[in-house]
Amino acid sequence: xxxxxxxxxxxxxxxxxxxxxxxxxxxxxxxxxxxxxxxxxxxxxxxxxxxxxxxxxxxxxxxxxxxxxxxxxxxxxxxxxxxxxxxxxxxxxxxxxxxxxxxxxxxxxxxxxxxxxxxxxxxxxxxxxxxxxxxxxxxxxxxxxxxxxxxxxxxxxxxxxxxxxxxxxxxxxxxxxxxxxxxxxxxxxxxxxxxxxxxxxxxxxxxxxxxxxxxxxxxxxxxxxxxxxxxxxxxxxxxxxxxxxxxxxxxxxxxxxxxxxxxxxxxxxxxxxxx
Length: 275
Hints:
It contains 11 helices and 10 strands. By secondary structure, the chain is an alpha+beta fold.
């Protein structure tokens, strides 16, 4: 069973399976360290691997798929993440006279493993894993302030990274959805990333696609799943996650309703054909 606790803005997570897949969208920056095992992060543009001891700063408003794996000796994946919330960063900027920053254009995932001060920072959080209630609101706020200070001392680029408060602007919705339909996130999250309110997102979506987001997403994901299975390279248990379905049973039911055949039957047909 997974061991997870979230105290204020600090998360500890320890997996139990050898292989775990998930998808994520964080509205806030995250600073984390991999304590054991591995986490592989994939976006449409790049990938990033966190192994034991890796420290990474992740940009807010990013979509990515994550694959967690056990370590080389079977140790389960575990990590500590500290979320740098926008309200906290705005308050810090105001208190410290930090002016409005230009839009950050750098990498969405920054490797900070070599930073000894940040390693010492995460070492100071380890005792709270066994006694999470000791990490009260005041301590969490102090730890968050410490992390911000350490990042700002590392390089000037982190001032821009942390204090770029610009929200996603209104973008081409058709291009965006065709590029990101495989991410299993909520409609409000899709709307925010497309630079729209939820009501405007739904209205614009219907004008472009002549259907609802929910119907379009399911149809698009099923079409892509059919293509992947027809290549004979992937199993249904891998495909449903790849295209953005939450569970295998729902995927199988929807697939058979759409195509009159189960994902397993289609995959087997093309496996036999190739043989």
